[in-house]
Amino acid sequence: MIHRAARLALGATAGLALALPGTTPASAATWELRDFEQRICVTPSGGHPGTYFIAAVVGTWSTTVQIGLQNLPPGATSAGGTPIPPGSNYPNPSSGATTVNGFVQISIAPLPVGVYTPLLTASDHTETQSVPVTINVKENCY
Q: What is the Cα–Cα distance from 42 to 38, expressed in whole angstroms?
């Protein structure tokens, strides 16, 4: 009976230690890809031969973060993005502004009228995060 009580006490103590504020599970990312709700408008006959989306990774990371685009519309291509070397990036405490630390190139071919939603991705080879970006194809972008 004494051994059982000791095991229960030890288990409860271990459980409390895991639940303390400020502890982070080993699998939790220490960085985040920010969503700026980026969008671009192009005409169906013109597309856009060379533009980019921006990426802001905030927090701290110890390996290079690769950025890119997935689920591109038909005929669109991307040479990928600028690798973000190990480091950190935090919003300005007074303004909330965040430094942009990556750019992803995209060439948009002529497309039928519609809305296309590729994904801007960031990966440290352990975790991959993504946010949608919008390509709006319409006759008049003004």
A: 14
For 28-62, what is each residue's pLDDT tens digit? 679 999 999 999 999 999 889 999 999 999 999 99
Q: Are 32 and 122 in contact (CB under 8 A)?
A: no
How many CB atoms are closer than 10 A to CB 65? 25
Q: What is the spatial distance between Cα 89 and Cα 109, in angstroms, rounded to a whole number?
A: 34
CA distance 68 to 77: 11
DSSP letter at 27 equals T
Strand (E) positions, 1-101? Answer: 31-33, 39-42, 48-55, 57-61, 66-70, 77-81, 87-89
What three-state secondary structure class fits 139?
coil
What is the pTM (predicted TM-score) of this model?
0.78
